[in-house]
Fold this protein.
Amino acid sequence: MSEILERSPVVQKLLEIACGSSRAEVSRVEELIDRAVQMQLPMIDSLLDAGLVQEEEFFIGVSELARMTLVVGALEPSDVPELKKICSAALAIRYQVVPLKLENDELTMVCYDPFRMEGRQALSRKLPYTIRWVMGERRHVRASLSAIYGVGADTFEKILAGRDIDADQLAEKDEASVLDDDESDEASVLRFVNQIIREALVHKATDIHIEPQSDILRIRYRVDGQLLDVPVPERINALQSSVVARLKIMSRLDVAERRMPQDGRIHLKNAGKSIDVRVATIPSVEGETVSLRLLNQEKFDIHALDLEDSVKESILEVLALSHGVILATGPTGSGKSTSLYCFLDYLNKPETRTVTIEDPVENKLPGIVQIAVRPEVGLTFAKGLRSILRADPNNVMIGEIRDTETAEIAIRASLTGHLVFSTLHTNTAIGGISRLLDMDIEPFLVSASVRAFLAQRLVRKLCEHCAEPVKNWSEARAVELAVPPQIYQLGGHPSAPMGCPECRHTGYQGRTAIYEICKVSETIQNLIAKGADENAVFEQAVKEGFETMRDYGWRKVMKGVTSIEEVLSCTHSHSGLTQI
């Protein structure tokens, strides 16, 4: 294609700039630009969407080509309320421009694509000011649009203009659950809600919280375990009831019921990928709050857990057993279910039958029979588990052991030749022993059935783009932090979070798990059966090679995966003995 098309001088120059700031092969860049020209697509967006160019270097070249001043770094508009009056959200977001400042009837506007002349011409006609155009990087332009106008602001303005306030229209298109379906430009509450969810996916959020306040509708995303406030349009509380009703319709909840909590589920598609959303509504004094848990239909793989060799070896040994109970422990949101799904995927072979009972079924695993608890019809963990044991399973997973009855049946199942997986809400691996004993399970049954306790936490991973080595790191500093000598001597150097646009200036991007695993050896079995306390079990486990969660975390720190602060905040120096 690149040999057939005759490029204009501007396109040829843009190609040279793109090749100069790209790590990709020249032929690939040529092909992409030629296709964009042929299909009349924005060339700059095509290059950036494909990830072929380094944005900073690329925009320096483009600004020189366009003979425009480049605003380096994040945009800092002055007098935001006045600028929002001058340039509406609909105009700014449609043409991807940011009003920067107004001085002496001259309005400075920032764009990132100087070749999209229709936007510049439209704004010159519609705004009663002389416009001075400058350039900015696309990521900074889009971040400023979100910060100034709020998520879904263009749709919100059109809705308030009267296009979609009718409650009957709210119930239309109930089947429309495709987030990136923009066939219609007509503003609607559905489109506004989709923009909220789509923006959360862009930020890689795991949860969305929509919370009515006295004067505003607050929206927050949970990203890497931290809650972030989302900029929202002014007067968004005018659509509070419509947004909540739309979400309840999508999740097939009772729209008229506002006094009781409700739980539902939404199935979405975004860019061809399936996304399940768990929805929970809670009545508050300011109105109904809605929490959405975003569950990407990801593939589970034990190798993707990034386990240290010693822990991986121990887990594979346990998974090779024919029977016994394996318990994952940790607080809510520590990744226990993900770890268990990875274990089940590893065991998911044609010659084995695996059945799970969960509340609710968070992720669907091909080849595995999954049952959802339904207390309203009498299907509890205990009742479901009894039925599962009559269905000839090799492996059984119980979402959570919550009571004595479920614990007893799980132990009985392991003693009759099944490998049973479940979770407990304790803070440490060895603390799982006390938890079972607190449920009135006999010590001899615990020692005879449980084969391993696995505890875990999620820590944030350092941003690869901005993390820097810790200054003044030395053996003395390692001793002060109680880093075990054998881990320090493995080498490596800790890094610290710095913050950059790629990680939203947090210094972190993504999360990883840190573990501790206590295999129940014959000696530990005897200690449990005799009623020994946690200290005795911990001491024996250490003799047998048990490594605490903090020590596991130090391994990740020395490799530059996470920071010292993350490990210290998520673990205890004697995590085998003391509850966090």
